[in-house]
Amino acid sequence: MTLKKVASFFLLFFLLCTVKLKAQTVYITESGKKYHAKNCSIVKTGKKGIELAEAKKQGYEPCKNCKADEITEAKPAKAAAAKEPAKTGSKK
Q1: Is pLDDT of 6 > 50?
Q2: What's the 3-state SS for the chain?
Q3: Structural domain boundaries of the chain?
Q4: Under 8 Å between Cβ of 37 and 71
Q5: Could you tell me whether strands 48-51 and 25-28 are parallel, antiparallel, or unpaired per DSSP bridges?
Q6: pLDDT tens for each residue of 31-89
Q7: Strands 34-35, 61-62: pairing kind
Q8: Closest by alpha carbon to 53, among 72, 74, 30?
């Protein structure tokens, strides 16, 4: 590969990662220092949605309960698993 192709690849990769981070909404509270997924059981009221990149920029850290950083990676895997038929131990 030429240097130009390698540089183009890394630029494209960086841009795609940036778009993915900006697209994810996480939730914060007035007094907390963590960001949360929408359905986090710890934060039920008083939450405000902001972009993940902005939450990190402001010094917030991910909640260890809901693992808000793993939301985008987990969704496609769960959807694929739901479409597969259940396997049983019996043979036909």
Answers
A1: yes
A2: CCHHHHHHHHHHHHHHHHHHHHHCEEEECCCCCEEECCCCCCCCCCCEEEEHHHHHHCCCEECCCCCHHHHHHHHHHHHHHHHCCCCCCCCC
A3: 23-72
A4: yes
A5: antiparallel
A6: 899 999 988 888 888 889 998 889 999 999 999 888 776 654 444 444 444 445 555 55
A7: parallel
A8: 72
